[in-house]
Specification:
six-stranded mixed β-sheet, 192 residues, binds zinc ion
Length: 192
Amino acid sequence: MFTKPLLVLSLSAALSGGVFAQDFRQHDAHVHGHVELNIAQDGHDLLIEVTAPGADVVGFEHPPETDQERQSLNRALEILEQANGLFNLTAQANCQLEEAHITHSLDGEKHHTDQHHHEHEHHHDHDHDHDHQHGEFNAQYHYHCENISDLRHIDSQWFKLFPSTEKMSVNLLTDTVQTALALTPKQTRISL
Ligand SMILES: [Zn+2]
């Protein structure tokens, strides 16, 4: 299903958008307790993408309404921005995080269309999709690994940080491996 040209396209597109996610993901509603993890390696580049239900990350999936919910959201975003706390990569591989991109859809709008076209008067058809009850988080991490051949393991700390998650489904695509596997709180290591 995957070919090298596709991966290269996906990697570059992922840095400017969410195309990578669309290659892997099905567009059904997510399952609470179930996080998706996509890992792609191409040459010295390593891309890790996490898609997680809001329920797993902050315990709610609507726009934050209380101070407590706002604090939970801010804390979660801080955690997600610290990729080093989420994933431990083999040190010898000398992987440096080059870019982290975190988004969420708790506000119920996947696309922030806050451009109000005032010239088209009063045409506020507010189709603010109320069917988007399942807000979720998406995090993309782009590493450059000096010694990529020494990258043996990726250890996920996700379950410690977000204990509501029971399972991570992993799609793994490297120069040598193309596979899918599952992580649980008792099995948090991805071997490359
Ligand atoms: Zn949900």
